[in-house]
User: Fold this.
Amino acid sequence: MKITLPVDKKSKDANISSNLGRAPYFLFYDTETEEYNFMDNSAASSQGGAGIKAAQNILDNGAEAIIAPRCGQNAANVFMTAEIKIYKNISNSISENIAALKEGKLTPLDDIHPGFHQHGGRQ
Amino acid sequence: MKQLLILSGKGGTGKTTVASAFIQLAAAKAYADCDVDAPNLHLVRPLASPAKVADYYGMGKALIDEETCINCGSCRQHCRFEAIKESDGKYEVDVFACEGCGVCEAICPVGAVVLQPDVAGELRVYKDKDIFSTARLKMGSGTSGKLVTEVKKQLKDETENLDIDLSVIDGSPGIGCPVIASLSGVDMVLIVAEPSLSGISDMERIIKLAQGFSLKLAVCVNKYDTNPDLTHKIEAFCREHGLPFAGKIPFDAKALKATNQGQSIIEVDCSAGRAVTEVYSNTMNVLNKE
Amino acid sequence: MKIAVLSGKGGTGKTLLSVNLAAVSPESLYIDCDVEEPNGHLFFKPQDIKTEKVNVKIPQVDQELCNGCRVCVDFCRFNALVYVIDKLIVFNEICHSCGGCRLLCRKKAISEIDKEIGVVQSGKSENVRVLTGILKPGEPSGVPIIKKLLQDEGQENEDVFIDCPPGSACVVMESIKDADYCILVAEPTIFGVHNLDMVYELVRIFHIPYGVVLNKCLEEEENPAEDYCLKNNIPILGKIPFDIELGRLNSNGEIVARKQAKYRELFQNLLNKVKKEVQHETASNT
Assistant:
């Protein structure tokens, strides 16, 4: 299974980013091959709809599950449509969260925040 | 670091006056002005060193290359924002109307229209003994939500490795996108209400918005003596909705004078200054209650 | 005669001024362009209200025709479109109605439908026709509502007063761009000066003649806004004193000029001054 985490640098000791849409990088981790791949988040600099664009990018790279502290309503809608699960992280560490996911210890994310759309939209 | 955001809904109720008093009272080491349309907090904070300034880029703006343009008018025909003007058969972009959607660029048969990066404002951070993050949006721009996010991110980045208990954030009026952006990640919102029909109507809207976020909320009334009846009404509203009422501040000409000298109202001996001190301690009680 | 009333910050008295000027004019049209927080109607309490919806176009996808080429997804600078598995999804509240996706779709899979973003209400309050724009919360732009409001240019015998949103952003530009004259309202604080400076720059960009009304003036107190006007040679149209009684009536949603003769006189004098200035400006322009 391919898992995605929003992270603050391109390294295994990176912290999990607090904002999914505007995280600088995404980590793609494959639970079968145990491979780590880092990707720039091209949505981070978007004026608006960053969460939506980030979700599209995550989807296009084949993620099947996401671990994040919070997620905007729009991105959550995209993931739900694509039947991708979103889990709440237990700490800031990548390895701890991956281990927890493998052991089935992560719970689904319920912090789906409303009204974040138009973050950068024209008023 | 706990974040306290000051909001009002309606403009001109006294957000910045309350924010600057709170900064002084708390000896806050970190603060920000999120009212990027009309920033004012810097006027009442003594700033010793110059700011670190960075450009803020908004949506791009279309530019027509006159040499390449064949004056077909296709861009004008397809622009939904009436941002392309024609005079004497020549086409020009009205940068204030342009929303940067890129339709003109896509539709131009000869590639004469290109979207250009556009500086929509500037971010400033002052680093003396305190960290002060602020920004100003350029006139006619409309991309303020993202800029508010940038102001808060700047504050967070600059204070990350410092041991700071509290940051005070001055918000913007309205209930729109800049306000929503300023709410993200704060621990508490203090609403500065004004005893007028308009003020109450706007206060109710902002409370409704803030309740959608998981944060603490309290209300205070400024210039309460200008309409005691409506002040009672606000107090009753708070009781009814279980909202902590942090106090009321009178209209005070001395406070006005202090502000005009670039001082906080607690720096002079006046009734408004004493009242705001009480509002502060009540607010801190709410914020620090587990 | 079309007069826009604006100020860099909120709460300086835009609505007080525009409502009362409209009230003392023999026949007038009051237009509330502060579509995020329209408050003028709280004063006028207009009768015979007619409500008209304001719509913008948003894309609608025919999934049968869509071949998943994603040209539209890549084009949309607002990120309002996503392609999930085999479906194109539109985020209506993100869409800015530019029409680009429909234009670029080679399969003609995208058409457009109306989406309501707010309303325009019209009504009558004695001598004043009242137009109010109300934006739905969460909508990205009030500009289409302001455009709709300003399509009513007023009848020949009517004075038109435009109550603008605060600030100097694009919604303010839209509100003032066809005005004959701009009144800048300022309060006597250094905040007032700073924000007056912003709108002063704005009216000069648009080459619209302007004057300042100083509000909440305290006798024998310094007035930084007045000093600013004198320094920059900005005409001062008049002063509204800080007055507890006026403040109370106004905060209760009363139109002070309709309540008391002394306030009627105050705003009548202001209106006369404004009209004189407008005539002067029109004469010097021709």
Observations:
- The first helix of chain A runs from residue 50 to 60.
- The interface with chain C takes residues 43, 46-50, 52-53, 55-56, 59, 74, 77-78, 81-82, 115, 117-118, 121-123 of chain A (CB under 8 Å).
- The beta strands of chain A are 2-7, 25-30, 36-40, 65-68, 71-72, 85-88, 112-113.
